[in-house]
């Protein structure tokens, strides 16, 4: 079986190819269609990820918890990965990766606090399996690139379901930073930092299909 990060990158490549070859993408991105929503059931103090078929994210809290699920994934990746393999990177690259990790941790705190203030239950961090990304520096950078690019597409796809304009501004501030992360990691991996004039929003179902293999609990 192919390593997880390779399967993850394959999903990204397929989406980029679809964007490069399809026509009328503005109409296609006007509304998330057909996919599904990532729902989070909380019981006994433990968050359990489950997938529920739906046409859209039903509330602002759904959107925020969806975003928090992805931020937990990214935060865990940098936090645990840099502890495991950080010595493999030169000082400049390590420092920048550490800053990205700090950003993801800050996003987790901001989203958690916002969900709590709105009376919701923030989804807790799950358990993850990043394959060989913590053993091979090239695999680490490739996985980081895939995570960041997928995160941008997830935010762009889910933002339309926010009804509170204040929350939309906050989400826009996060996705802008995620896009800067993605550009930097594209450059490190020898990819174009800005591969398209327009981003390709993704449905929760598409994001879950790509990111789901990393979530093991």
Explained architecture:
The protein has a single domain (4-214), classed as Ferritin. A two-stranded antiparallel sheet has the order 1-2. Strand 1 and strand 2 (46-52) form a beta hairpin. 59% of the residues lie in helices and 6% in strands. It has seven helices and two strands, in the order ααββααααα. Helix 3 packs antiparallel against helix 4, helix 3 runs antiparallel to helix 5 (137-158) and helix 5 packs antiparallel against helix 6 (165-188).
Task: Give helix and strand order, one letter per element, not per position.
Answer: HHEEHHHHH
- Can you say what the CATH homologous superfamily is? Ferritin, core subunit, four-helix bundle
- Strand tally: 2
Give Rg in angstroms.
17 Å
How many domain units?
A: 1
Residue share in helices? 55-70%
Q: Spatial order of the strands in the main sheet? A: 1-2
Q: What summary fits the major beta sheet?
A: 2 strands, antiparallel
Low-confidence stretches: 19-55
């Amino acid at each position: 079986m192919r390593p997880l990060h390779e399967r993850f990158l394959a999903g990204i490549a397929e989406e980029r190819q679809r964007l490069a070859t399809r026509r009328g993408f503005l109409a296609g991105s006007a509304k998330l269609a057909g996919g599904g929503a990532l729902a989070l059931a909380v019981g006994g103090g433990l968050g359990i990820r489950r997938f529920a078929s739906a046409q859209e994210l039903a509330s602002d809290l759904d959107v925020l918890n969806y975003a928090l699920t992805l931020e937990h994934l990214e935060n865990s990746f940098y936090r645990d990965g840099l502890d495991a393999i950080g010595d493999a990177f030169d000082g400049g690259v390590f420092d920048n990766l550490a800053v990205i990790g700090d950003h993801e941790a800050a996003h987790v705190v901001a989203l958690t606090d916002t969900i709590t203030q709105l009376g919701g239950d923030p989804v807790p961090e799950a358990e993850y399996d990043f394959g060989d990304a913590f053993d091979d520096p090239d695999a680490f950078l490739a996985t980081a690139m895939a995570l960041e690019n997928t995160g941008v597409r997830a935010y762009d796809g889910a933002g339309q379901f926010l009804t509170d304009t204040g929350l939309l501004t906050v989400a826009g501030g996060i996705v802008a930073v995620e896009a800067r992360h993605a550009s930097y990691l594209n450059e490190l991996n020898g990819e174009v930092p800005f591969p398209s004039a327009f981003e390709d929003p993704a449905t929760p179902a598409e994001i879950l299909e790509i990111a789901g293999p990393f979530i093991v609990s």
